[in-house]
Amino acid sequence: MANRKKAGLTDKLLAAKWGIRLAWKIDRKMFLLWTVLSMGLAVLPAIALAYNRDIIANLSGFISTGAGSFSALVPDIVMLGIILMVSGLSTRLNDDFLYMTMFDSYYLGLEEEMMDSAQRIDLSELVKKEVKDEYFAAISRCGSLTDLMSSGCSLLARMASIISLMIVALITSKIIFIMTVFYILVVIYLNSAFSNKARVAWQEMREMLRKADYFEKLAQNGDPAKETRIFNSSEWVKTKWDEAYDTIEKTQVERSYGIAQITFFSKVGFYVFMVLMMVYALFQVAGGTMTPDVLLMIFLLCTSIAEAVATIPKSYQHLDYGLYGLDIQRRFFENTQAVDPKEESRKADTPLDSEVCFEVRNLSFAYKADRPVLNDLNFQIKRGETVALVGSNGCGKTTLIKILLGLYAPTEGEVKFMGRRYSEYRKDFVMDRIGTFFQDFYLFHLTLGENVGMGNVKEIGNEPMIMSAIERGGAAKVLQKLKQGLNHRLGKQVHKDGAMLSGGEGQRVAVSRTHMSDKEVMIFDEPASMLDPIAEMEQFFHIKQKLGGRTSILVSHRIGFARLADRILVLDGGRIVEDGAHEELMAKGGVYANFFQEQAQWYDLSEDRKDERGVRDEEPARA
Ligand SMILES: Nc1ncnc2c1ncn2[C@@H]1O[C@H](COP(=O)(O)OP(=O)(O)OP(=O)(O)O)[C@@H](O)[C@H]1O
């Protein structure tokens, strides 16, 4: 995913092009209606002026010479009234009105597009923090398209109005035309200088918005609120929110102040411009080179131009703000394009090696260039093998699992799944073959049955299959506890009467979901970390029993379970320091053996509680 950089003119143009295409795709009727209507209405002041000039010339001729008839002028006067009325109404067609009219189509349309694009993001991308940040930044600016279209239409209308008025100015007097051009250029320069300044301030403000939002929610969300109250730190958290909010307020005030300043200077500029024009015109009238009707015409021309120019600062800022958001969204969309079907069809959908499941050669991995997490790993996992991956907290177990799933690519070295590199397979090949439980599992605020059934969505209505997965995941007691059984809802976000499970209960439900997936390779990363050591052993024992000879990787930093595996990989400081069966490693008296002896005391203590817990005889002996 490309890093976001400060948007230059090319980025703005690309964002505008992309936004216009998207608006056309989302609602072309709205697009056509408002671009045509606003441009059409915008030229009315110029038409009115042209009419005005004719009428004034005819009227002054009629008054001074008495030639012709007044009734002949009536249709023109009526027509002028109509044009002025419609033209007056057209000035109400400003950014705010257009924004309201377009909101439903473009805001919701863009939001929908964003949600679709999130579905397309590869999971290996979505697990990266910077990608999540990009997505958050993109989705939080869904008003950008409405900003572009409303202020764009409004600006186009102003431009059409100014150009048509300038044509009238050119016909009336070249000097006036030149002065008008100069005045407009000054206004455009002022706006562009300010918008660049405002854009930088906005980037800083966005960081602060995120910070303020985070600290604001701390007080509302149960878990963090509990922490802050227990430690009596709510007031301190509030000062953090205050600090962030002060910056936001300051930036917003500066922005409004900047727009007001530009509007003010544009108006002052206008009065100077008007006085200059009128003085020039009066001299011309005094010298007999200009008639009074032209003088009146120039006055009206000036006021019409000023009116058109006065709304430019606001529209320009809205447009710039919209382009800023669209630039973020465009980059995000372009980086999350759907897989190319042609390229996809050339990829493999069959394994190359039926004996070796994972092959890891010289694998190194670093989240940040200078801090390697895994160093030069070499191992194979054969089909049908049960491997325990053990090591202390932070030694890289979960990272290695993510690499084995193809979620992260190695920084160095090579990983193959069933004989091929991950990039050689079609999109879903790997995920269709590996069922995984991650320690940071998520329970959906849906029914118990749906939570488990999601492991294999095609079978989500298959009750016997779900019941079997629940039994294998050790969640039978959770099911018994819930009054509505499989139909009982979990969590309170969607249904206020949903059940709240304990950490251990939730973990059992999530493990059941992985069993439901029933893939040919199964990976369990800390499936019992929320259970006590005895229950943890039970959980691993159940998992091992139910795997039925499939390739599997069991991960834990508590080591007692490892002897259930055919083979143990010991990770220490990002390296595989030992690799072998339990007895072999115990006999070696190395890292594993030491680790095992240290933790054995726990299991001895827990042994005393065996009867109390009703542990069955067939369960493994504890150390
Ligand atoms: N997304 C990430 N970005 C940067 N560093 C990370 C990220 N995820 C993990 N790390 C770092 O990588 C190292 C290994 O983390 P990992 O989660 O793989 O360890 P682990 O052995 O699974 O730990 P535990 O037993 O506590 O689950 C840690 O030092 C951790 O801080």
Q: Could you characterize the architecture of this molecule?
A:
63% of the residues lie in helices and 10% in strands. The radius of gyration is 36 Å and the shape is elongated. Helix 8 packs antiparallel against helix 12 and helix 8 crosses helix 13. The longest helix is centred in the middle third of the chain and has 53 residues. It is built from 24 helices and ten strands. It has two domains: 327 residues, ABC transporter type 1, transmembrane domain (ABC transporter transmembrane region fold); 256 residues, P-loop containing nucleotide triphosphate hydrolases (Rossmann fold, 3-Layer(aba) Sandwich). Strands 6-7-8-3-9-10 form a six-stranded mixed sheet, sandwiched between helices. It has a four-stranded antiparallel sheet with strand order 2-1-4-5, with helices on one face. The protein is of the alpha/beta class. The N terminus and C terminus are likely disordered. The two termini are 48 Å apart. Adenosine-5'-triphosphate binds next to helix 15. Pfam families: ABC_tran (PF00005). Keywords: ATP-binding, Membrane, Nucleotide-binding, Transmembrane, Transmembrane helix. This is ABC transporter ATP-binding protein. It is a multi-pass membrane protein. One of its GO terms (cellular component) is plasma membrane.
